[in-house]
Amino acid sequence: MEITDVKIFLRESNQLKAFVNMVIDDAFIVRNIKVIEGENGLFVAMPSRRVSNGEYRDIAHPINTETRNMIEQVIIKKYKEVLEEALSSADKKREVEDEEEQTEETEFTSE
To answer: I want to staple 34 with a disulfide (CB 3.0 to 4.6 A). Which of 45, 56, 59, 91 is the partner?
Structure first.
């Protein structure tokens, strides 16, 4: 089994950090996987739904530890990459905005 694509959709929440879509072998997609910040760090929660007794049950999930660990490693690595890119873009945007403000202030005070 090969994970051939992972798409991360960042969220600004205390615990829910991202939704994830994962493609396996370019043939099967699993949507609505979650990256969650827990007491012991990040972990991956498989898509689930609420059943009649109020509990949540996974809709799809790995059936062995090896596969679970592989999926979690790939998703968390990709999450960290996407988060770093987003933070870097935000920093660059802030720098540009600061430069524009300084230019406007200089133009205003020189008039």
So the answer is: 45
